[in-house]
Amino acid sequence: MPSKKANPAPATGTVLKAAAAQPTLTSLRGVADWREAAAWLRARGIEDIECITPDLAGVPRGKMMPSSKFTSNTSLALPSAIYRHTISGEYPEETASFRYEPRDSDLKLVPDLSTLSVVPWETDPTAQVICDIVDTDGNRVSYTPRNVLRNVMKLYSDRGWKPVVAPEIEFYLVAKNDDPDYPLHPPKGRSGRSILGGQGYSIAGINEFDELIDDIYHFSEKQGLEIDTLIHEEGPAQLEINLRHGDPIELADQVFMFKRTIREAALKHGIYATFMAKPMQGQAGSAMHIHQSVVDIETGQNIFSNPDGSASKEFFHFIGGMQAYVPKTLAMMAPYVNSYRRLTPDMSAPVNNAWGYDNRTTAFRVPVSDPNARRVENRLPSSDANPYLALAASLGCGMIGIMNAIQPSPPTEDSANEGDIDLPRGLLEAISLLESDPTLAEVFSPEFIGLYAGVKRGEFETFMQVISPWEREFLLLNV
């Protein structure tokens, strides 16, 4: 058990040695070892198994094989290049900080057996398991998303603490669209009409898609995924799923699997589910709000509250760290050009680094709660973010605040999502900020920062090759 005594806060820029440490592979839940896994597969008549892992975008990558081969100590490997291509599958040019591994050597998949679950939408009995990534010597690869989050969590465990998170994921249901040149539209529900916007918390809006939602619940239950609540959001056919609070790795795994589950359930009903941050012009974007608290491992007490119930210094320093560093890590929470279309004034999204008590216009909201549940909601991440990287960024910034005793600004009671924008306005600016502070490289690893920045710049260059309808509308005959 790590000591629960906090270490003295280092000066800003001091190397955070713990970030480079390699935590051991352990199962947190579910199947614990290969013997249990083999019995689990036999009991369910599983024929095939998908060994998957998230790439930098959060897209599942991996291999599929017969279950008999999976349990026969087969070595699984993927080329390292899967972490060096863009969302469109292209490979950016090398830069000083972004290099290709000359041999494109193998990285090994190590199944986390605690994540073993069925794939309920497959017709043949199929299972899936999330894998960690190690090199040929068995060392964790620092730039892979699950390991980035694990290393941030170790900063907490070294102090005897454990973060607790609860993500809220928004997404749109849209009619099928096989031509990317045409705008997206909401699908028709059971009434035969397309649902309109302005349906926040509408039960009728949810009931329009009763059968699809039943499938989401059914698929989720089969996989052991826990939905806390489901609501209709402001946009047309925009829904939000709230997950129960828990361990950050487990919750990132759940978001990773939920995205796949919701897409599959929607396809079963002939529509799309999209986690784009801003899929429809003039409508609200989709966020992935993250509720965060920290507990003492030994006592189970929330360190954000003092024994008398008042807010602790760690609580305020956590907020101060997020205010100072979340704008610099925004590229990990808003990872695409489209993400910044959501972060605009008057569209129910924060455009600042303000914080406040029960103030939904701020970037960092402190919900009303009793002292044991005191937490901070980060409202900046968009639903297109890789959940492992968004959680790592948010928790990492809070920890930097604690370690450096960063004081927050006074809380605001005003509307903070109007007027000037205090955040990066685009992907290139956000990437430059991510690279600018040495402390971030110490927390997330220089390898990750260089790799991520290179891939994101490559995606921007791909985007710049596309001529938009706006350009054809206003430039074609006017300039």
From TrEMBL:
What cofactor does its activity depend on?
Mg(2+)
Q: Which organism is it from?
A: Rhizobium deserti
Segments forming domain GS beta-grasp: 47-138
Which biological process terms from the Gene Ontology are attached to this UniProt entry? glutamine biosynthetic process; polyamine catabolic process
Under Pfam families, the record lists: Gln-synt_C (PF00120)
The GS catalytic domain extends over 145-479
Alphabetized, the UniProt keywords read:
ATP-binding, Ligase, Magnesium, Nitrogen fixation, Nucleotide-binding
Q: Which GO terms describe its molecular function?
A: ATP binding; glutamine synthetase activity
Function summary: Catalyzes the ATP-dependent biosynthesis of glutamine from glutamate and ammonia.
Q: What is this protein called?
A: Glutamine synthetase
- Protein family per UniProt: Belongs to the glutamine synthetase family.
- SMART domains, alphabetized: Gln-synt_C (SM01230)
